[in-house]
């Protein structure tokens, strides 16, 4: 029996700029700066729709890999999930060509614009997980959301929860250490995640090929 | 053009209108809810920790909902939700093949799919079928009429089963005839025709509904025995027996023989049927002789060649007074005359009734009186014998009992005592839930009269009281080996359905249990088991109330309460033996003996017991019995003992079956045994391909002439040729010795033709081959256990020793067995030294650093052979090209037929060990002391390397064997 095989990319959209158009009251300058986690993982504009993202990916693939590359992916490309509130997306591509999409995502430095007049906004598309089923992508998203909640609570001043929630997070001391050293560009937050994503991908590959 | 007549399928229905609806539903289930970005910001549109957290929480929920929803939206067919053990492959969609509760759903699905439910073949009955159907209809009608008539008759005499009107006068119990075979009770008329040539187990109907039974025309050992449950259960049986629940068997087919006589003659009887002398006298068997332990022992023929018959379970009846007096007397004696007579500890017994006298006697024990008492008193023995050897054992015992002075009486208790065996971690718990001891008024009064140190024990720790405390025991092997517990239980139907027993979880309780298990008070406090008493057994069976009466009492009881016990309730005498697996970490088993008629109620309670770990106990058939024996590494009687008569009979049956199976297959699809290429120009399977061909093993290849003398001669010469010339001196001398043995006038007269199942060529089973003194008879067989690293041997696989005639081939096999150390025959001596050095362990290496390195070196390389021990690192000769793999050109072929030593009788993947194992039988004389140059390294009398080849295949595999 022939099965059509897909890959599901779990993508985080990160915002390296500390301020953005969303934060209207930047001038008021909050007394305590937000943790980097929250700043990077800020919500995306509502204008970013699944269709828009898909079109942006197609454009990028066309740019990078030409008509041939576009033809390879366009039949199977589908944005399964895009949540502006959490800046998370799940993208489906065919198994054979998901690297094209991954590459295209990596080269996207700006958020796709709904119209030409809209202001550009820098972003990083970070693929954190490649999986063979959407379920595993969802599970990974849940895991990461849990970790983010714990970290946000810990770093965002709700220290009282530290005691009993601290132990729960799988993302333990090493991430803490990573944060400690820095003012941080985009790199330091992504480092570990990137590795995770690669790991996941390689696992999937070995399992299913 | 549509053909006339009924069409195979309906016309395809028009494209369904609800397809779009279905699609939208699926789409809906697959979408994941999202939030807009303002939900992740606070009211001012700023970043906010709590909003951030809330957005994530929403995402988690949405993902969870999506995963659950898309799982639910999957369309599943009815047969996909059938539990695993009921699943089938062929026609799984068929409504008629799915369990009843799913039939409605399945029928609808089949209708939607437009799948035909009836096969075209059965659409219209053939003329012959039509006749049969009509006849069936007619019979049904007649049956209804008869039923109606019977109902009318029944109504005329109500209250037949009413316990109030039931007379409590015991009917005349016919005296059991001594020394004669018993016959099963007459079955009820409607079952009579089905039991003409066989008997049913008490739980026959339960099993017949749920298990594959022996075919009606071919009963096994004169019984209809469950072979295997209908459900798929290989893995679940393994789990139940070793990890979670328990497996129970109705073992009522095991025959029971009762022997009655004075102790001396019973001991003489046992001695002459081959029970170990150490058990009959001396301290080792003291508890057994007293009656608080069971014993499994091999018995043999008394006359003739003294062939071993079977392993039987032997139980002494215990007498409570005897025990008490015995201990006190023994103490006194120990003081008086130095305890030389410990033997009689349990031997003395008194007649019932003159207990007080004995008590007084015990105060001042005149030795003569005591001795006389002991000599006079009669004791009872129970022997549990496998039905396949029952007649053999019966005849032996009868013969021997008549020789004893005074004579011992033998009773055939076959259809009077039934038994249940149960194995698994939940076995004790299930039994505790099913068996509720009744406190005997007599026994309590008796304990009061006693005035000894054990009084406290008596009060607390009688067998009845100990029994419920054992519920937390997860392995009957934790009890003293073969411990016996006997007490009376109430009718289990009064406590039906059974409830989960409360398991103690606190530490003090566990400590108490450990205390009980280690001290085992029933040794002192056990009262006389009533199951030895025929009247008690029959009374218990007779007093079993009808189900109707039980139901009435249950109806009268308060909700949730058990019916109040009444004085007329039967006291079912039971006896439990906790037997231990040979490896103590494996699960032991309980054997429950009880009156034949009481097996069924107990069985139902057992099967419905809700375990604390979930689920109910499982039941098993013969196949499961064999499977568990195999997983525990023990041979199964009779299948794994082809040297016994029973085992050989079974082997003949198996042969017949496999032959039929083989012949039934089309020519292209069956193994052509004649064209198996065994390498070195040998062609064709050794002996009969589908059999464990023991005759061929002992006779050797058929010679051109048919003369038997010739054959014998050729056999001997071939064996003499088998001795390699270039071997070391010691094995050579050994093999010479064994070849001399074969020329000795050995008892090899073939059995008379009137006795077909007895093994031909006088090959026979050998008990304890390692302890047997040489010369070992050439035709002695002993079971061995084989472990393999690769390969999957099944029954009839051939076992070879390492080649003795071909040193080159031998070395090649040794290379495969020990991949890292090349063995050269020439520098055997240095090899041995090196091997010895490796054996000596790490102690010789002096510096800790070196030791650590050596240890790491040993641990790191991949394991080569499980018990090889010699294959370590530091290969002194590095072999180039590695070890040949099966299928390679240089993979060695199997040895010659001279080196064939036996056959595998059971072989499979052992789920417990996680590798393939096998149990086989080998000719002992061929392996003991014939390991050639490998004497020091691999071969000793207990085990070594061998080569196993599946029947009909050319590939040999290295295995390690040991005697069982």
From TrEMBL, chain A:
Spans through the membrane: none
Lineage: Eukaryota, Fungi, Dikarya, Ascomycota, Pezizomycotina
Acidic residues composition-biased segments: 189-209
Similarity field: Belongs to the eukaryotic/archaeal RNase P protein component 2 family.
Pfam families linked: RNase_P_Rpp14
Superkingdom classification of source: Eukaryota
Region annotated Disordered, chain positions: 165-209
Name of the protein described by the UniProt record: Uncharacterized protein
Key words of the record: tRNA processing
Keyword NAD: no
UniProtKB/TrEMBL annotation, chain B:
Cellular compartment(s): Nucleus
Biased composition regions of type Basic and acidic residues, renumbered to the chain: 656-673
Domain POP1 C-terminal: 780-962
Biased composition, class Pro residues, residue ranges: 747-760
Keyword check for Endoplasmic reticulum: no
Occurrences of domain Pop1 N-terminal (ranges): 52-261
InterPro entries noted in UniProt: Pop1 (IPR039182), POP1_C (IPR055079), Pop1_N (IPR009723), POPLD_dom (IPR012590)
Superkingdom of the source species: Eukaryota
Keyword Chaperone: no
Pfam families to which the protein is assigned, alphabetical: POP1_C, POP1_N, POPLD
Ranges where the POPLD domain occurs: 589-694
Keywords: Nucleus, tRNA processing
Region (Disordered): 1-43, 101-127, 335-370, 656-680, 718-765, 865-889
Coiled-coil regions listed: none
PANTHER family the record matches: RIBONUCLEASES P/MRP PROTEIN SUBUNIT POP1, RIBONUCLEASES P_MRP PROTEIN SUBUNIT POP1
Name by which UniProt lists this protein: POPLD-domain-containing protein
